[in-house]
Write a structure and sequence with these properties.
The chain is an alpha/beta fold. It has a single domain, classed as Alpha-Beta Barrel (TIM Barrel). It is built from eight helices and nine strands. A nine-stranded mixed β-sheet has the order 3-1-2-4-5-6-7-8-9.
Length: 250
Amino acid sequence: MEAQATVGSRKGREFLLSECYVSVQGESSLVGLPTIFVRLYTCNLRCRWCDSMHAVEGGDFTRIGVDAMVKTILDFAGDLQSDARGIRNVCWTGGEPLLQAESIARAIERLPETFVHSIETDGEIDLSAFDALVSDERTSGRVRYVMDVKCPGSGMVANKAYANLERLREHDEVKFVLLDRADYEFARGVLSKVGTRARTVLFSPATPAHQVSHGLDPGRLASWILEERLPVRLQLQMHKLIWPGRERGI
């Protein structure tokens, strides 16, 4: 563990790691699949409903080299000799993982080509720089984004997200975390005004966390979606339903 003031990684050589574990994917179109989660430390935003503040601030992280991180992922993956065994989905999350883009790219280069990598990003990091580092993997679909667009209820302002929406590809996904009706109207407005090739759009109700004491009722959000016939996917965080009350390792 290091003090917040000393945070800084050697780009392309090491990670600031909050935690690494195996669980079932609780979000996105890959929900339910066994997945290796690599949660990286530090973030460029401070969302009011953040449920992983331990990976955002406070200095609770470990420095780990790229090669050591690759070995850890492979150990978690298990037996990869048969298509019937092993875990081949890796989720890079945070915090904001693309603050350590160079190291992620080096790790992806060293991992088997059968792995699929999901990058959970907050939408406020220019995606073009990471695209250039993993251009072949982006083209093949081995690297896919699940990108947030920050709604007003987060306390943050969507800025770079609009340009990033236009950079997304068909296998990428867009996520809106909604705190109230105003957030719903904001998300609907973004979808009507900004074009994207991403085929999957996720509407996720905010849950009580950090500075939010009351989330958005999923049933209410479902009724709004159905009333207006929006072609979006209602997303609940399945891991929180399976392991209620746990904050880490799920």
